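Quick one:
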Amino acid sequence: MEHIIHLLIGFIVLSFLLKTGFYPRWGIWLSALVYTVFLICIGPWATEQSPTEINSLLASVPHILTLSVYVTLEASIMIAFCFNCFADTSKQRTLFQRTVTYILNFYPGLLMAGILTYLLIQLFFAFPGVSFGLITGISSVAVFILISGLSLLLKNIVGERKLRLEILFITNLFIVLLSVVSTGNN
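Output:
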């Protein structure tokens, strides 16, 4: 079960990096900065978590079912973004269509916050004896560099917008599939 969760985390991170690759350079830096500030703010709360609490949370079927709903919802939002980008861009779009397009373009993915929280808590237990503030600070700087760098790297490596949309679509299909598998795998 834990391997499926880690694989799901990897696909969600890839989806986030691909999605932020559609932003301009300042938008990528802004999303990296938002998650950096989030990690700094969540640091004191994360120090209070215990490994048994996290493991029991991941072993709890009702929590996994709830998490699966959130994962599927976010993946469907990303899939809707892909369909919206391929949609016919007619001259006369309604206010509703423009609003939906704006929201889909703006939404980076909120599950990344949960993943960063989980990873920060795991880092606290991986490095016992090291100051929690130091781990949080180093993690925050690393998150800013990695989100900025990897988003720009994926944007430059893949290059073509339509190919990035297809990769984002396929990645989110895998996320939905793994989400379903994680609920059935007790």
